[in-house]
Amino acid sequence: MKDTLSGSWNMLVTAWRVNRRKTLVSLVLMLAGAAATPLLAAALGRMTDEIVAGHATGAALAGVAVAGLAIAALTFAHFAHIAYFELSEMAELDFDEQLIMLSNGSPGIEHQERPELADSLTVLQQESRRFQVGLEALLNSLGLGLAVVLTAILLARQSPFLLLLPLAAVPPLLTGRWAERVLDRAKTATAEPTRVALNLFTLSTTARYAGELRVFRLRDELRRRHASLWATATRGLWRAQLTATWIRASGQIIFALGYVAAVLLVVRDAIAGQRSVGDIVLVIALATQVNQQVTTAVPLLRDLQRMASAYRRL
Predict the structure, then answer these.
(1) pLDDT in tens, 138-160
(2) CA-angle at 271, arms to 287 and 54, nearest 5°
C-alpha cells in the first residue's frame, strides 16, 4: 500500500508540474461527478416519499434535483477526460524524459551491460505507455473515495448495521492487491525471455543484418529461438493471469454475500413497517452503488499498483 500511495503521489505531482490548470480542472470535475452519484440516490428517496405523500411541489423540486445530479454524474467525467487526456500525454513525455536521462545520462556504458538493468528498462518501456491509464485511475480513485464517504454517511443515517456493507469491500480490495503482486512477479520473471525474443525479432526483420542471416542460413534457427522464448514468456504470464483471476473471484464472492444480506435487512424492516418507501429506494440504490464502487475499485487499484511499480523501478 505504501508503494501505491507513493506512486499515486508521484503521478499527481508530475501532472501538477506539467500543467496546473488542466490538473485542477480534472480534479474538480471528477470529484463533483463522483459526489453526484450517492446524492442522486438520496434525491430519489426524497422524491419517492414526496410522491407517496402527494406533495406535488416537493416532488417536482426533488425531481429537478434528480435530473441535475443525473446530468452531473453522467457528463462531468466526460468533460474531465477532455482535460486529462492531453495532460496524460504531457506527463507520459515527462516520464520518458526521466527514463532517457537515467538510461543515458551517466558516464560510461557499464550499467548498460547489466542484465538486471536491461530487464527493468524492458518493463519500464512497456509500462510508460500506460501513463494515461494510470492518471485516469488516480483521478477516478479520488472521486471514488469521496463517493464512498458520502455513501457511508447516508447508509449510517438509515441503520448502523448497513455500515458493514462498505466493509465487505475490503476482501475484494485485498485479493485485488494480492492478484496484482502475482502478476508483477510474473512480469519480472518473464522480462528476460521477452527482451531476448524482441531482440531476435528486430534482428530478423532489420535490413542491416539480412545479408548475414542469409549467408549463414540463420532464418530457421532464429525463428525457432524466437518461438521458444515467446512461448516461455506467454506461458508464465498466462499462469499468473489465471491465478490472479481466481484470487479476485474469491474476493468478489465475499462481497456478493454481504450485498445480499444488506438487501434482505432492508426488506425485513420494510415488512415490519420501520422503513418508508423512500428509505427502501435509497438503501437499495446505495447498495447497488457500493457494488459498483467495489467493482470499479479493484481495476483502479490494479492500474495504480502498476504505475506505482513503474515508479519504483524508475
Answers:
(1) 888 888 888 888 888 888 888 77
(2) 85
